[in-house]
């Protein structure tokens, strides 16, 4: 009788240990495989526009925006008297400070992710005014 109790305890502990070992092996395999297939590890580092390129982008106010009146960076409304930046190509507008902060780190539109190409960055007529 004592032997059967001992065998029952030994077999249940051995079974639980085997299940736990298999679980640890599967967990290790899943994490090592996930680290190799991380899509973000292959992305190039973020690079924004230079301050001189940002300054060449058109400036306007809230009245001059073509598409919408909400800044996608800060999610606040762009008032008609607020200074705004209009991105070439997609014509999305943002608060001037929000757009400049975003574009210093990223070279894409914060709303539609279209790339701001260097050839799209042109001096606007209002920036050419020396006064």
From TrEMBL:
Keywords: Membrane, Metal-binding, Signal, Transmembrane, Transmembrane helix, Zinc, Zinc-finger. GO terms for molecular function: zinc ion binding. Residues 71-113 form the RING-type domain. Its main location: membrane. Coiled coil: none annotated. InterPro entries: Znf_RING (IPR001841), Znf_RING/FYVE/PHD (IPR013083). This is RING-type domain-containing protein. It comes from Kalanchoe fedtschenkoi.
């Amino acid at each position: 009788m004592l032997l059967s109790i001992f065998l029952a305890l030994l077999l249940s502990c051995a079974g639980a240990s085997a299940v736990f070992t298999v679980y640890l092996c599967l967990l290790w395999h899943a994490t090592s495989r996930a680290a190799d297939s991380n899509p973000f590890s292959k992305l190039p580092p973020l690079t924004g526009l230079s301050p001189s390129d940002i300054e060449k982008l058109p400036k306007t106010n809230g009245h001059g925006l073509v598409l919408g009146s909400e800044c996608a960076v800060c999610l606040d409304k762009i008032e008609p008297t607020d200074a705004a930046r209009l991105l070439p190509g997609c014509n999305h507008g943002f608060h001037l400070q929000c757009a400049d902060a975003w574009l210093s780190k990223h070279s894409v539109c914060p709303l539609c992710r279209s790339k701001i190409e260097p050839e799209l960055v042109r001096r606007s007529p209002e920036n050419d005014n020396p006064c």
